[in-house]
Design a protein that fits this description.
Elements (H helix, E strand, L loop, with lengths): L21 H9 L4 H12 L6 H16 L51
Helix pairs in contact: 2-3
Length: 119
């Protein structure tokens, strides 16, 4: 890399050549045209040379993105829901059932264990 050459940063986001022709493609799909026919019509009427897969992929991606919505246009919700239901701090929480009483630990009696079962 020479001293004058600098790496590119950022730049414009990629936009498909077909974006401005979405309505044209949509109308052709409504008329039940095949993707090959659409690619041929794009070449003859619009002067855009594409494979038959390009309009298909563009059309499907465009419809999926349209249904999803744009993140900048969605309403902003800054207020988060409360972590717990509204309950005043002075009141103790109500328990539905009492906790069981702990059973005191009782060490097993080694003399009652049959050692023959473990060998």
């Amino acid at each position: 890399m020479s001293e004058t050459a600098r790496p590119k940063r950022g730049g414009k986001a990629f936009h498909s050549v077909l974006e401005s022709h979405f309505d044209f493609i949509h109308q052709l799909r409504q008329r039940r045209k095949t993707w090959q026919e659409i690619a041929d019509l794009l070449l003859s009427e619009k002067g855009i040379r594409v494979t038959l897969y390009a309009p298909y992929r563009f059309y499907r991606r465009h419809l999926k993105r349209r249904a999803k919505g744009h993140w900048e246009k969605q309403p902003q919700h800054h207020e988060s829901p409360p972590a717990r239901p509204n309950q005043s701090a002075g009141q103790p929480q109500k328990r539905l059932s009492p906790l069981p009483q702990p059973v005191p630990y009782k060490q097993p009696d080694i003399s009652t264990i049959k050692k023959d079962e473990f060998t």
